[in-house]
Specification:
The complex is a heterodimer of chains A (239) and B (343). With 239 residues, chain A is an alpha+beta fold. Chain A is 28% helix and 14% strand. Chain A has 2 domains: 103 residues, Beta-grasp domain (Ubiquitin-like (UB roll), Roll), CATH 3.10.20; 129 residues, Fumarate Reductase Iron-sulfur Protein, Chain B, domain 2 (Orthogonal Bundle), CATH 1.10.1060.10. Chain A contains 8 helices and 7 strands. With 343 residues, chain B is mainly α. Chain B has one domain: 3 helical TM bundles of succinate and fumarate reductases (Up-down Bundle). In chain B, helix 2 crosses helix 10, helix 3 packs across helix 11 and helix 9 packs antiparallel against helix 10. Chain B is globular and about 60 Å long. Classes of the chains: A alpha+beta (239), B mainly alpha (343). At the A-B interface, helix 4 and helix 8 of A face helix 1, helix 2, helix 4, helix 7 and helix 9 of B. The structure holds protoporphyrin IX containing FE (2 copies), iron/sulfur cluster (2 copies) and FE2/S2 (inorganic) cluster (FES).
């Protein structure tokens, strides 16, 4: 089938303003992924098109873009899932809320700053056990935060959030998900510190439960639920 | 970070699910009701302090333009209340998140179900009113008398800006902070709880209030002489709005002025809830420190002023001699300037 591409282009060294580039691709298979088609545009039609990807298999989290109005990983979206007619249009633009470096590439530094601010690492609550092996945990305790271990820091969620668009000061869903991972880990000793950080003005209270983040997550993490659990933990005063 | 304009246009462009539109509606309806509330508390205080002026205000409530606004207001309150209950539910049951889409549909459905009979009854009151020979207040009258509020807003915001600029000059803190505000604070955690608790309490209070002035009695019956006064055993003998208010506030059940307590509770909860909502919106969109501090100041000042004014009116009550003054006030309407602001 034939597909029309509409891609948001911006080269800060040349362009005053972003614009839409239009490209037509023939011989598109329903099982093609949008990432492959972006490659075809770059390789066959316009080598200046700039995008980011590494693994191409939904693992590294580097190719989040907005496809037909919704944040997605280009490497995980099959053409057939977009329900296009022959000659239908695929619109691709950078995710919103982070500075555009060029075309579809945005600067992740502010996003990672928020991530780092929530202490996204294990802080042992107890000294290493006498046998020098791992700190043990019951399967139930482990299940408590299983969902939030799956995050690949792709920023699909944070850049779908109207609160984050409105103010980049908001720590954002991805950072909260990664804090949740440790807040609800019984072996961790910094729960209270993380809850204090997330209760700051830029923290969880800026979430208006809009639920854009949950369907945006390519790892199907229950993002808004995790945020809700963190809010309740703060209200309770602990895990 | 996106600018205010892109935030708004992108919210409209992003293909979010229903939750995104629920939020937009929740914010718009909340802001609309706050705007009405500001005018409403000020003009209710006239019943106590400027009875002649109060007759004008209620005259405006009965004008065609406000009748349209009244329908919008009731719709806004009902939607905001239903959606607020949904937010509270999922806040306390985050594990039910997968029902959220359904819940947003139910909120829309419930709002419509509540609105249909409400509008029907309100419309009945409107028809009944226009069947008689109503004294209509013209649009220019309304603009004339509301202009002072606009001026008031401008003055308050300008004063707050000046204060905030002075603060910035002294401390040297201007512009948009590069890093988020990292001041540890329990304030927002506390306000989060308050928004939910106050929302739950406001639901019966505001629905009761609206039932009294829209359904059991229409806005038009407030000035019908000989009409019984809702929630009391009195009759409005002068047919003046101040008598309606005065008799309600003076009505005692076992020695307790129940409607004063009721209005006081509604006043305090709604003003703090609504103005904190305003603060949320300002925190979202105002990034410059000087502007944000100014608006936050204006919000705090505005909330305090409204609560003080409202309670002063409740405590002062309506003087019975005012029932006659109000009559004169209405007759001299648009001839003699009786505005407390000299307008
Ligand atoms: C009728 C019962 C009401 C309920 C159940 C209710 C509930 C809520 C809830 C749960 C929030 C969300 C706060 C958050 O996201 O953290 C909210 C926000 C808000 N409410 Fe209400 N509310 C009610 C009445 C009112 C009234 C009467 C006003 C106006 C005076 C008002 C104005 C606002 C505003 C301006 C916001 C902020 C909206 C935003 O941040 O987008 N609410 N309300
Ligand atoms: C057009 C619709 C409305 C009409 C005609 C109306 C009418 C009145 C009247 C006649 C009073 C005087 C006291 C009394 O009789 O109890 C009053 C007081 C009050 N109303 Fe309303 N009301 C309306 C809508 C609302 C709404 C939507 C709210 C909440 C957001 C509200 C909040 C209040 C408060 C807080 C007071 C007490 C004010 C004070 O004591 O200073 N009203 N209203
Ligand atoms: S649920 Fe909260 S974090 Fe997620 S998109 Fe909505 S406001 Fe943003
Ligand atoms: S929570 Fe999901 S959408 Fe958000 S950064 Fe992690 S993987 Fe991406
Ligand atoms: S390229 Fe690695 S997640 Fe898509």
């Amino acid at each position: 089938m034939k597909v029309k591409f509409r891609i948001r282009r911006f080269n800060p060294e040349v362009d005053k303003k972003p614009y839409w580039g239009e490209y037509t691709l023939d011989n598109v298979e329903p099982t093609d992924r949008v990432l492959e088609l972006l490659h075809r545009v770059k390789w066959e039609q316009d080598g200046t098109l700039t995008l980011r990807r590494s693994c191409a298999h939904g693992v590294c989290g580097s190719d989040a873009v907005r496809i037909n109005g919704v944040n997605k990983l280009a490497c995980k979206v099959l053409v057939k899932s977009l329900n296009l007619k022959d000659g239908g249009q695929i619109q691709v633009e950078p995710i919103l809320g982070l500075p555009v470096v060029k075309d579809l590439v945005v600067d992740f530094e502010p996003f990672f700053d928020h991530y780092r601010s929530v202490m996204p690492y294990f802080v042992p609550a107890t000294p290493l056990p006498g046998d020098g092996r791992e700190r043990r945990q019951s399967p139930e305790d482990r299940a408590r935060f299983d969902d939030t271990t799956k995050c690949i820091l792709c920023a699909c969620c944070t850049t779908s959030c109207p609160s984050f668009w409105a103010s980049g000061q908001y720590v954002g869903p991805a950072a909260i998900v990664n804090a949740h991972r440790f807040i609800f880990d019984t072996r961790d000793g910094a729960t209270q510190e993380r809850l204090n950080i997330l209760s700051e003005e830029s923290g969880v209270w800026r979430c208006r439960t809009i639920f854009n983040c949950t369907p945006a997550c390519p790892r199907e993490i229950e993002v808004t639920r995790a945020i809700g659990e963190v809010k309740l933990a703060i209200q309770r005063g602990g895990r | 970070m996106a600018t205010l304009v892109t935030t708004i246009t992108e919210t409209l462009r992003y293909k979010g699910k229903l939750g995104q539109w629920s939020w937009v509606l929740h914010r718009v309806t909340g802001l609309g009701v706050v705007l009405f509330l500001i005018l409403h508390v000020i003009d209710t205080s006239w019943a106590a302090f400027y009875p002649g002026q109060y007759a004008k205000a209620i005259g405006e409530y009965q004008s065609p333009l406000f009748t349209l606004g009244e329908f919008a207001l009731v719709a806004a309150i009902i939607y905001h209340a239903m959606n607020g209950l949904r937010i509270v539910l999922f806040d306390f049951k985050p594990e039910w998140w997968h029902l959220q889409q359904k819940a947003a549909m139910i909120v829309l459905g419930a709002s419509v179900v509540l609105l249909v009979p409400t509008f029907a009854i309100m419309f009945g009151h409107v028809l009944h009113y226009y069947d008689g020979n109503p004294d209509l207040v013209t649009i220019s009258d309304i603009i004339q008398s509301q202009a002072q509020f606009l001026l008031g807003f401008v003055v308050i915001i300008a004063a707050a800006l000046l204060l905030s600029l002075a603060y910035a000059l002294i401390t040297g803190e201007t512009g948009t902070p590069a890093r988020p505000n990292r001041r540890p604070s329990q304030f927002d955690a506390w306000m989060w709880r308050f928004m939910r608790l106050s929302g739950l309490l406001i639901v019966p209070l505001v629905f009761g209030h609206l039932a009294m002035v829209h359904l059991i009695q229409g806005v038009f019956d407030i000035t019908t002489s000989g009409h019984s006064i809702v929630g009391t055993d009195a009759v409005n003998s002068s047919g003046k709005a101040v008598e309606f208010v005065g008799r309600r506030w003076d009505y005692l059940v076992a020695g307790v002025a129940i409607w004063r307590i009721y209005d006081g509770a509604l006043l305090a909860l709604v003003v703090v809830h609504g103005f904190n909502g305003l603060r949320y919106v300002v925190n979202d969109y105002a990034h410059d420190r000087v502007v944000r501090r100014a608006l936050t100041l204006a919000i705090a000042f505005g909330a305090a002023a409204l609560i003080i004014l409202g309670f002063a009116a409740l405590l002062a009550g309506v003087d019975e001699t005012a029932y006659g003054i109000a009559k004169e006030g209405l007759e001299s309407f648009s001839k003699v300037p009786t505005s407390p602001f000299g307008g």
